[in-house]
């Protein structure tokens, strides 16, 4: 089976011709399915771009959402809108709200949006403020003092981050639990790199200032447990978020591929061959 994978396509940064070009690039590959590991658009248009992709490629499309997909909205409302869309479009599969996708004993696809959880690097000392903390409604404080940046206290932001990350770990753990022990290859789709070694920035591993905001340790811990429990199964994690590509071999049977990206230039990261 041949699967096309793309991440951080940010289709809101291109015009309709750019969207058509991306869809055309997928069509030319002649693959069995498309995987998207988040940052498709923003809260107001992610469902529109998913509709365009689903109708255009006309093949199963397995996806998760990224941090940008919630900009201008809430986690609950955005996910609800996307879940409603997948109920109407039979070739769109939102992995954060679905059973594992199983193809015999050879392949299973699981996934969740994921979120950075502040458990890697030095969150307390990091002064990094992502747009997430301003543009996603859940992160905004109830009251904003006039003239101030609308930010929750760091401790409150961390609780929200970890709640999202923990939800991802629980969902993935459940998906793994219902898969047959004989499954040979599991593709894990998430937006946020689940290991320090997979959190690339400009060709290097992110530093302690950035790691808290760009890596999801709790999902990584869960994947390590599954890799040990399923020693004869290959686990391949597909993620993005950092816009800098790299590949990390975490254990003999667990590999994480982080996709690079550039705003305004959506592309296919690679075609994955599952034998």
Structure, described:
This protein is an alpha/beta fold and 275 residues long. It has one domain (2-273): Purple Acid Phosphatase, chain A, domain 2 (4-Layer Sandwich). Helix content is 31%, strand content 20%. The chain is built from seven helices and 13 strands. It has helices at 16-29, 46-57, 75-88, 132-135, 154-177, 211-214, 217-229; strands at 2-6, 33-37, 61-64, 92-94, 101-103, 107-111, 185-189, 200-201, 204-205, 234-239, 246-251, 254-258, 270-273. Helix 1 (16-29) packs parallel to helix 2 and helix 5 (154-177) runs parallel beside helix 7. It is globular, with a radius of gyration of 18 Å. The mean pLDDT is 95.
Estimate the global geometry from the Cα principal axes.
globular
Structural class: alpha/beta
- CATH homologous superfamily heading: Metallo-dependent phosphatases
Mind telling me which CATH architecture this is?
4-Layer Sandwich
CATH class value: Alpha Beta
The portion of residues assigned to helices is 25-40%
Got a strand count? 13
Main sheet attributes: strand count, strand direction, barrel closure: 6 strands, mixed
The total number of structural domains is 1
Low-confidence stretches: none
Compute the CA-based radius of gyration. 18 Å
Distance between the termini: 6 Å
The percentage of residues in β strands lies in 15-25%
**What is the residue-mean pLDDT, rounded to a whole number?**
95
SSE pattern: EHEHEHEEEHHEEEHHEEEE
Give the number of helices. Answer: 7
Instruction: Return the CATH topology.
Output: Purple Acid Phosphatase, chain A, domain 2
Q: For the largest beta sheet, what order do the strands appear in spatially? A: 5-6-7-10-12-11
């Amino acid at each position: 089976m041949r699967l096309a994978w793309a991440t951080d396509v940010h289709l809101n940064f291109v015009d309709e011709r750019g969207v058509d070009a991306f869809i055309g690039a997928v069509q030319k590959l002649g693959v069995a399915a498309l995987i998207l590991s988040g940052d498709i658009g923003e809260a107001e248009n992610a469902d529109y771009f998913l509709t365009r992709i689903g109708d255009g490629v006309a093949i199963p499309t397995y996806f998760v959402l990224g941090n940008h997909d919630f900009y201008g909205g809430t986690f609950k409302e955005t996910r609800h809108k996307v879940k409603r869309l997948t109920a109407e479009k039979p070739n769109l599969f939102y992995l954060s709200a679905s059973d594992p996708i199983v193809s015999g004993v050879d392949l299973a696809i699981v996934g969740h949006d994921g979120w950075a959880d502040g458990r890697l690097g030095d969150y307390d000392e990091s002064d990094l403020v992502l747009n997430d903390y301003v543009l996603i409604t859940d992160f905004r404080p109830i009251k904003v003092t006039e003239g101030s940046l609308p930010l929750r206290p760091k401790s409150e932001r961390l609780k929200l981050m970890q709640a999202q990350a923990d939800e991802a770990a629980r969902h993935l753990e459940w998906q793994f639990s219902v898969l047959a022990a004989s499954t040979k290859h599991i593709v894990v789709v998430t937006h946020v790199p689940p290991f320090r070694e997979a959190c690339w920035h400009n060709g290097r591993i992110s530093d302690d200032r950035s790691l808290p905001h760009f890596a999801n340790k709790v999902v990584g811990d869960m994947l390590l447990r599954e890799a040990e429990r399923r020693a004869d199964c290959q686990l391949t994690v597909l993620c993005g978020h950092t816009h800098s590509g790299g590949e990390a071999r975490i254990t003999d049977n667990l590999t994480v591929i982080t996709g690079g990206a550039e705003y305004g230039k959506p592309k296919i990261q690679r075609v994955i061959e599952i034998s």
